Amino acid sequence: MPACLRVAALLLVALFALPAGAQDYPTRTVKFIVPFGAGGPADVYARVLAKYLSQETKESFIVENRPGGGSLIGTEVAAKSAPDGYTLLLISNTQTTNESLFTHKRYALMRDFVPVATVNYSDLLLVVHPSVKAKTVGELIAYAKAHPGQLNFASSGPGTPYHMAGELFNAMAGIKVVHVPHKASGDARRSVMSGNVQMMFDAITTMLPQAKAGKVRALATTGAKRSTLTPDLPTVGETVPGYEATIWLGVVAPKGTPKKVVAFLNQAINKVIQKPEVKALWLKQGAIPLVKTPEEFDAYLRKDIEKWAHVIKVAGVKVQ
Fold it and tell me: Which CATH fold topology does 123-238 show?
């Protein structure tokens, strides 16, 4: 066979192999492990992905919540799962923070997982219980300095964005607000709304409705600029220059997951998060779709691990 015909034949084989490879997956139910409690951003957006991916692939995508240990429990379960594309993990900057915060955990993010796709990011909202007299970030800092150790802030566990936002606030404002970890963000939210804990940095997507209902008082958002959802509310950085803390979400799979499956999932997830109805809904909630290739997500994760390692070191953050 002439060389030109051999090349043409190989190209045809490669061309027709791509759809066949895609059709091989998925052929049964795919599980999203969410290592956080029900009702938080990771859970809410995982369910959006599951709904649309089920429609796109004609196979079921389901969500399984495995909260606890600041996401360590669910993340370890996912790390030990078969690398076949049928168990995925929804992560946030909790996982990149935990790389430095928990040195003896039984998995390593970049060793035991492969990046699949980013999902979205959003600002946090600094809120206090209505019984707290502070009406501004400046007043809150002044009160904390006058009453060291008497204010508490809630989070969904060590290493979560809510925890690290509070520790960063402590370090940059020169105050000491005591961290009170909870098993899930819903538990932390209820603690603040009931007044058992005085304040919290929470996802704007889930806490803003509570602030509008008067169950908590919103003092500021945590992004680099004011949120379009709350244009009259200042950022923390307007009082504490340089302060910025957000929450992002992404999907990873156990190490060894076939590359063609990772590529298929990346394209499918990117398609979902760019759907007009999904983008419109998320923007109303304050969440911005985040589109990256697996390679770009890999670099993003490594940079975020370095960022939070520095914050942990400078702030002297430790967990018992």
Answer: D-Maltodextrin-Binding Protein; domain 2 (3.40.190)
Tell me the per-residue pLDDT of 196-232, one tens digit each, with 9 for 90 and over: 999 999 999 899 999 999 999 999 999 999 999 999 9
Q: Is the CB of residue 265 less than 8 Å from the CB of residue 26?
A: no
**Which stretch of DSSP H or E encloses residue 114?**
strand 113-128
Q: Is 226 exposed, middle or buried (0-12, 13-18, 19+ CB in 10 A)?
A: middle
**Helix axis angle, 41-57 to 259-273, nearest 10°:** 110
Under CATH, which number does the domain 27-121+248-315 receive? 3.40.190.150
- Which 3 state secondary structure label does DSSP give 151? coil
Considering the entire predicted model, what is its pTM? 0.84
d(CA 204, CA 286): 7
CATH 3.40.190.150 domain locations along the chain: 27-121+248-315
Preceding peptide of 26 cis, ω within 30°: yes
The residues of the chain that CATH labels 3.40.190.10 are: 123-238
For 115-149, write each residue's pLDDT tens digit: 999 999 999 999 999 999 999 999 999 999 999 88
Residue 36 CA to chain centroid, in angstroms?
10
User: What gap in Å lies between CA 160 and CA 28, rounded to an integer?
Assistant: 32
Determine phi and psi for 27, rounding to 5 degrees. Answer: -120, 5
Burial class of residue 158, CB neighbours in 10 A (0-12, 13-18, 19+): buried
